[in-house]
Amino acid sequence: MDAVTVLGIGRMGSALAAALVGDGRPVTVWNRTPATVPGAVTASSVAAAVAASPVVLVCVTDFPAARGVLDAPGVDVAGRVLVNLTTGSPEDARVMADWATARRGTFVGGVVHAAPDQIGSPAATLLVSGALPAGARSALAVLGEVREVGRDAGAASLYDLTLLGLWYDAQVAYLDALITVGSAGVDAAQFAPFAARQLAYVVDGAPETAREVAERDYPAGPASLAEHAPVLDKIVALRSRGGLSAGRLAEVTARVRDLVERGHGKLGLSRLVED
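Below the sequence we write its predicted structure tokens.
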């Protein structure tokens, strides 16, 4: 089994290192401030940590921090597989991939979709992109389910930020809904099961929606754009009366109205993806 180095042993990095130790692998760790992981060797410098293993997991705050760590004196990434498990943009990942390639290293973009206490269990998923050598894949598989999402080094970061954006959009929409019903005296706990059921319609319909977008086929489904338009008008009005910003939904309502006026009223809501 390949030895693995973990750079950055905060809560997540410590969980990664502990899972690898538990798998019986030689593990070396390094942290900016003194910290240890039972069963792992603590390196005295970044250079020593990188030299100790063919696979190096970078688990720090962001891409600038990762570059700052790897630019430390004496660090040689030649022949090493750098798996960067930090949040950043696709452009950040591509720049770092070029940096690693210029130094004869291999860069793998990655993100961890799990809490630290889920690492090493089926609940953890690692999204990775770029060229993933077998040895690195074997090490990552110890940590959770490995899903390769593309050869582009920035693909994992694209997935990560887009999925996080989806969560924020849904969570903020739910909070707005709680404010709306709460202003009318509705108990949040009473409303929650109905909200969960409504959100489940989006989740359950995700594969079909993706097919419609991919094939540019927009069936009306439960309602056509012409039928959605008056409902959207009412929702925007309700939010406005409650002092909430209609924001994105107001833009969507205007867009739906425009599509109806242009003769697309019989199509479904997924038609919004086209100009």
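The chain has two domains: 4-151, 159-273.
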